[in-house]
Every structure is written in C-alpha cells, then in structure tokens.
TrEMBL record:
This is Glycosyltransferase, GT2 family. Keywords: Transferase. The keyword Transferase applies. GO terms for molecular function: transferase activity. It comes from Butyrivibrio fibrisolvens DSM 3071. PANTHER family: GLYCOSYLTRANSFERASE (PTHR43685), GLYCOSYLTRANSFERASE 2-LIKE DOMAIN-CONTAINING PROTEIN (PTHR43685:SF2). The keyword rRNA-binding does not apply. SUPFAM superfamilies: Nucleotide-diphospho-sugar transferases. Residues 3-149 form the Glycosyltransferase 2-like domain.
Length: 279
C-alpha cells in the first residue's frame, strides 16, 4: 500500500480537490490519502477543509493542533500512514495517473537500501489563459541514481511532490526537520542520500502549479534562512567535499541575489568564497 500525504494551509477546498483527484486517478489503486490540515484551529479555512474531506472513502482527514508548518504536518502524516511506501503531494500540485505505478516498478527489483524513487516534473502557470507549461528546474539534471555528493552540490530532485519513499526509512531518519522554514525537502533528500540510495524515473509525472496564492518557495526570508540552517547542519560534509562546498555557497549567493533581500550578506559571502577558494 502507498500512503499519500497531502498537507494543506490556506488553500480552498476546490484547489485541494484537484490534487486529491489526481491521486484517486492513479493506475495503482492500493492507496490511502491523508489530508493533514495545518490551518489554525477553528478557522474558516479549517472548517471548509474538514467539511470537504471528512468521511470520504479512502481519505483520512487529520487536524494538526494549530498551525505548526508543513514539516510538522508531513511528520504527522508519516506517523498515521498505514502503507509500506509514503508519497507527499503539495495541496496545489497534481500527478500524472501512472506516477505511483512507474515508481513502484523501480522499487520492485531494487534492494532494501533503495529508499526513494523520484520523477521529473513541469511547471504549469494557471495565471495565464490558456495555462502555460514550462520545464521544471531539475529536469535537465536528471540522473538515474543520485548520490550524497550529487545532492550536496545541487538539488537534483526538487519538490516533495516528486518522491516515493519507504516509510521505514523516513521513520528511521526521524522525518522532516521541523526547524526549517524552507528547503526542508532538500534537507530530507540530503539525509536520505547520505544513508540510502535514490533512483529516478525519467518521465514528467508531477505538475508544479504556479498561481497567485501563497507559496513558501516565494518567501525570500524563509529561503535564505532554510539554506543557512542546511549549510550549518552539513558543514563538515561540505568541508570534506570542496566541489560540493563551492556549489552550495554559489546557490546561497544566487538565492540572496535573486531576491535582492540581504545585500550585505551577499557581498560578505561572495568575499568569503573568493578568499577561500580563489588563489
């Protein structure tokens, strides 16, 4: 069985329904859906989600105590999952019907040390008419197997909506790091790749939906803070791997530069890279 965890926050039921329907339409049908409500207790958003998804066949509605964030909500989903495998789907993303079937096929002949199978995705901008489709940022980086060195240097995977994981591995690794305001998916992939093997499916099987509603990935402060925490957490690994170290520092610089948020930090880190790596 596959347990599909959909965490939701400030999202109207009709938007979440699209994500849910893409799961119900899977060609692999031995699954359950766990809707983890991360809205504030007794809020209008929470009431609407509860009304829309409580008591439905194959769907389990779970109310998190207050608004604790996506990581805590995903961990609550893992705790309540009944399946051998766990997949996550953001409440505004969708899957292709064969996603789970194709990922499970890669698990079929793999040894127990393969803890995750990811897939490719695309970006669908629904703010335009008609919606426009573009390539997801990790598509051209596809690797049939991703190593810890690969992930240290760059995030070859991307969104939590792309992976299918063994529940036993997620439990053993302690779930998602709840101290992270962003980049929690990247940190989870680092931990998995450090302790297990990750395989891929070279096909677009998930759709990242762009719209005008709130998205964590659009918060510059959260992105910057998330990268800082990840960098500190894996500093010794980066220090032993100069190539990956430079890659991570370059990503931090680009994050600051892209959002134009912490200009002082941008020039300070740039000076550090030049001083440390350029002779």
């Amino acid at each position: 069985m596959v347990s599909v965890v959909i965490t939701t926050y400030k999202r109207p039921p009709e938007a979440v329904e699209k994500a849910v329907q893409s799961v119900l339409d899977q060609t692999y049908q031995d699954l359950e859906i766990l809707i983890v409500d991360d809205n504030k207790n007794n809020s209008e958003e929470s009431k609407l989600i509860a009304e829309a998804f409580s008591g439905r066949d194959r769907i389990k509605y779970i109310k998190q105590d207050g608004n604790k964030g996506a990581c805590a909500a995903r961990n609550l989903g893992i705790t309540n999952a009944q399946g051998e495998y766990v997949a996550f789907l953001d409440d505004d993303d969708t899957w292709e019907p064969e996603k789970l079937e194709m990922q499970l096929a890669r698990f079929k002949d793999a040894d127990e040390n393969v803890a995750m199978v990811y897939c490719l995705g695309d970006v669908v901008d629904i703010s335009t008419e008609p919606p426009t489709v573009s390539e997801y940022y990790t598509t051209r980086l596809y690797k049939d197997e991703i190593t810890f060195h690969d992930q240290l240097k760059y995030d070859y995977i991307g969104s939590t909506s792309q992976g299918l994981m063994r529940k036993s591995a997620l439990v053993k690794l302690g779930g998602f790091d709840e101290s992270l305001p962003a980049r929690q998916d990247y940190e989870m992939w680092l931990r998995i790749s450090k302790n297990y093997r990750i395989y891929g499916v070279k096909k677009v099987l998930f759709h990242y939906i762009q719209h005008g509603m709130e998205q964590i990935t659009k918060s510059p402060k959260k992105a910057w803070t998330g990268y800082k925490i990840v960098y500190k957490k894996y500093y010794e690994d980066y220090r032993k791997d100069p190539d990956a170290h430079i890659g991570m520092l370059q990503r931090i610089i680009e994050t600051v530069k892209e959002y134009n948020y912490f200009l002082y930090q941008y020039y300070r880190i740039k000076k550090h890279i030049i001083k440390r790596f350029v002779k």
